[in-house]
């Protein structure tokens, strides 16, 4: 009887702990596979969401993932609709003026997707071409810097890849993991498209969790949780699941 009572009390304690755990709402634009996407059951999945879930377990908070369109994701953060953004946000000096960032959780380069046989093999080959990316991303900022190229923006990276597949544009630039997913692993697109090359930034480009300016409580919670899953090896397990061993 005492054992049974002890088990019941333990269960109630755990339930109470979960109920008292702090909710932390993360905005996610789930249109960026394999980083953030929607699965067949309409769940938000991907490398980033899985990292966030693991951080919640390690840090004792309850992560809530809120699917949010990219074009309004930063305005929503500023207006307090959520606590943080977990959506492959590159840490840039310009963005730091308006928001705070966690420690980096992923490093990226920019990948260039082109049609097979296009002859495009370098940035110089993009002169005179229409080059596209998702609006407001470092990929799109790069498109605008390519000499002689016409930059085109899309609400979602998948729409840009679809237009590339159908011959409406000449190239798409995206984070290397995303570019690789579309060009090399996607059953349909990989038949006609390829990952031509990577563009390394002048200085390393890292992704971080964006938080409202001055919200030290959330930044500290995210940083300590991220450090915990890196120390435990959980981060490496998630990384290996999505991208293979480092």
Could you explain the architecture of this structure?
With 246 residues, the chain is an alpha/beta fold. It is 39% helix and 27% strand. The protein has helices at 2-20, 47-59, 73-78, 93-96, 138-145, 157-165, 176-185, 216-232, 234-243, and strands at residues 22-28, 37-38, 44-45, 61-67, 84-90, 99-101, 106-108, 110-115, 130-134, 150-154, 171-175, 193-199, 205-212. Strands 1, 4, 5, 6, 7 and 13 form a six-stranded mixed β-sheet that branches. The termini are far apart. Mean pLDDT is 93; it is low at 5-19. Keywords: Signal. This is Amino acid ABC transporter substrate-binding protein, PAAT family.
Provide a short characterization of the protein structure:
With 246 residues, the protein is α/β, with parallel strands linked by helices. It contains nine helices and 13 strands.
């Amino acid at each position: 009887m005492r054992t049974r009572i002890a088990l019941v009390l333990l269960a109630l304690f755990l339930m109470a702990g979960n109920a008292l755990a702090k909710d932390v709402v993360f905005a996610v634009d789930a249109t960026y596979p394999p980083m953030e996407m929607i699965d067949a059951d309409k769940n938000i999945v991907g490398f980033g969401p899985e990292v966030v879930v693991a951080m919640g377990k390690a840090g004792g908070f309850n992560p809530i993932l809120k699917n949010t369109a990219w074009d309004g994701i930063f305005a929503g953060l500023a207006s307090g609709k959520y606590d943080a953004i977990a959506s492959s946000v590159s840490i840039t000096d310009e963005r730091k003026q308006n928001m705070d960032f966690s420690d980096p959780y992923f490093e990226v380069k920019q990948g260039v997707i082109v049609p097979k046989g296009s002859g495009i093999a370098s940035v110089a080959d993009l002169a005179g071409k229409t080059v596209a990316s998702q609006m407001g991303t470092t990929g799109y900022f790069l498109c605008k810097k390519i000499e002689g190229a016409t930059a085109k923006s899309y609400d979602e990276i998948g729409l840009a890849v679809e237009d590339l597949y159908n011959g409406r544009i000449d190239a798409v630039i995206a984070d290397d993991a995303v570019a690789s997913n579309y060009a090399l692993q996607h059953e349909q697109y990989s038949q006609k498209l390829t990952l031509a090359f990577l563009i390394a930034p002048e200085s390393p480009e890292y992704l971080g969790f964006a938080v409202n300016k001055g919200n030290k409580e959330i930044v500290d919670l995210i940083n300590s949780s991220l450090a915990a899953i890196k120390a435990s090896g959980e981060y490496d397990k998630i990384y290996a699941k999505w991208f293979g061993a480092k």
